[in-house]
Amino acid sequence: QVELAESGGGSVQAGGSLRLSCSASEGFSHRRYLVGWFRQAPGEEREGVAALDSDGRTSYAKSVKGRFTISKQGTKNFLTLQMDNLRPEDTAMYYCAAVGGPIYLPPPPGRAPLQPNEYNSWGQGTQVTVSS
Description:
Layout: E1 4-7, E2 10-13, E3 18-24, E4 32-40, E5 47-53, E6 58-60, E7 68-72, E8 77-83, E9 92-101, E10 121-122, E11 126-131
Parallel strand pairs: 2-11
Antiparallel strand pairs: 1-3, 3-8, 4-5, 4-9, 5-6, 7-8, 9-10, 9-11
C-alpha cells in the first residue's frame, strides 16, 4: 500500500474548471498499475470517475466522459484529474486511488477499473463544490 494525498479541490461556478492532483509520500513507481479517481457525495456510494492503467488504457464514468481527463506523470505528484465544464452534480469529495506491482495485471477497461475494490491505496479526499 501507498500513502496518497489529494490537492486542488475548491469551489467553482458551473462551467468552470478544476485540476486535482494526487501525490504519493514515498513515490509511486510500480511498472504495472491501475490508478483512479473516485467521488462520494453525502448519502451516496463512492463512485468511480476515471481510471488509467499501465497499458495506457482509460476508463471514464458516463457522466464525466468528454469533460474530465485523467493523466499520470512522474512518481511523486503522479496523478492528475482535469475537470472541465463542471456541473453542480459534480459536487462531492474526490479521492485518488492506486494499486500496482511488478506482476500486477490490470483489469480490462470499462466497468472494473471504476470499482473501489480494485484498489488498495487511498487518499483522504479533497472537496469539490460546484455552484449553479
